[in-house]
Amino acid sequence: MCDTTSNLEPRSPRPVRFFAAGPAVLLSVIAALTFHSLPAAAQGQGQVQQCAAREAVLDRLAHSYQEEPVSLGVTATGSLLEVLASPEGSWTIIITVPGGPTCLVSSGEGWRGAPVQIAQDPHV
After folding, report:
1. What is the distance in angstroms between the CA of the first residue and the CA of the last residue of the chain?
2. Which residues contact 79 (CB under 8 A, 6 or more apart)?
3. N or C: which end of the chain has fewer CB within 10 A?
4. What is the pTM of this model?
5. Cα 22 to the chain's mean position, in Å?
């Protein structure tokens, strides 16, 4: 269940992981979120998600972790999925439900930017 009444809690220190996230990983995350809504998945697992207004989440990630948006997309259900990353390599994935809160999906270390290639065929 999304807890929209509380402030975002400070995240615990992240373990250092050496993982180069590329387009395939991002597409996998987007595909998974396309088929399942985040609040329903969290309720089914008994997890409480950290959620707040989008601007509050973006401000907190920018000030606390120097993370800025590096990629975004719209899911089939109309939610806005965003990946934020810092120059040091920390990253966070957030999702904003239309007319609802923004929730933290995942975070980690070792983000590496990959060149974006635009398909020539718009049906790809």
Report:
1. 35
2. 33, 37, 38, 95, 96, 97, 98
3. C
4. 0.60
5. 14
